[in-house]
Write a structure and sequence with these properties.
Radius of gyration of chain A: 13 Å
Order of helices and strands of chain B: EEEEEEEEE
Radius of gyration of chain B: 13 Å
Number of helices of chain B: 0
Structural class of chain B: mainly beta
Strand content of chain A: over 45%
Distance between the termini of chain A: 39 Å
Number of helices of chain A: 0
Helix content of chain A: under 10%
Largest interface: A-B, 25 and 28 residues
Order of helices and strands of chain A: EEEEEEEEEEE
Number of strands of chain A: 11
Oligomer: heterodimer
């Protein structure tokens, strides 16, 4: 059974860089059938796609976040990571990682999510 | 990249049917059959309910169905049950260097 698990600090200071990792178990991150994506949800608000990565390293980002986002993949650890720089309180959200199918462009498996608060 | 447009809320009584709309443009909903729908209960991760406009993943009740006309996709839930009360989000593939855009979400209340 495929499982995704987010990990990282739950508190980040303003202007610093938010760093999260998603560990994938039950499937290879090197599968040619999938991207691997990050989605966030501010408290009480809707979902926002942050970006997705293919195992080869090709990345796709939300234009509104592109200047601050970097997504990378570590095939040896079956993990992919998110870095969001110059964070503000507006970046406070639950961050989800998810498997993103290349055939149907949907997110079919999700992690449980991790709340990241931006505060001094 | 603008979010897809969904009604903020819909409601229905047990046993009734409801429909949630999701309006985009010819660059996303109208241009591709890659619309998906997600159900999210409070404090939980979203769950995929519909993909490719009208396909259900294994295990999803056949009370959930999807359709599309022009730039608007729709999710219909028939035979409403109390457990269907949740937030629902649509998403679509979008052309260009980006891949995905979500709708703003719709809160379903079962009266």
């Amino acid at each position: 059974q495929l499982q995704l698990q987010e990990s990282g600090p739950g508190l980040v200071k303003p202007s610093e860089t938010l760093s999260l990792t998603c560990t994938v178990s039950g499937d290879s991150i090197s599968s040619s059938s999938y991207y691997w994506g990050w989605i966030r949800q501010p408290p009480g608000k809707g979902l926002e796609w942050i970006g997705s990565i293919y195992y080869s390293g090709n990345t796709y980002y939300n234009p509104s976040l592109q200047s601050r986002v970097t997504i990378s993949v570590d095939r040896s650890k079956n993990q992919f990571s998110l870095k969001l720089s110059s964070v503000t309180a507006a970046d406070t959200a639950v961050y989800y990682c998810a498997r993103h199918t290349r055939v149907s462009y949907c997110f079919d498996y999700w992690g449980q999510g991790i709340l990241v608060t931006v505060s001094s | 990249q603008s979010a897809l447009t969904q009604p903020a809320s819909v409601s229905g009584s047990p046993g009734q049917s409801i429909t949630i709309s999701c309006t985009g443009t010819s660059s996303d909903v109208g241009g591709y059959n890659y619309v998906s729908w997600y159900q999210q209960h409070p404090g939980k991760a979203p769950k995929l309910m519909i993909y490719d406009v009208n396909n259900r993943p294994s295990g999803v009740s056949n009370r959930f169905s999807g359709s599309k006309s022009g730039n608007t996709a729709s999710l219909t839930i028939s035979g409403l049950q109390a457990e269907d009360e949740a937030d629902y989000y649509c998403s679509s593939y979008t052309s260009g260097s980006t891949l995905e855009v979500f709708g703003g979400g719709t809160r379903l209340t079962v009266l």
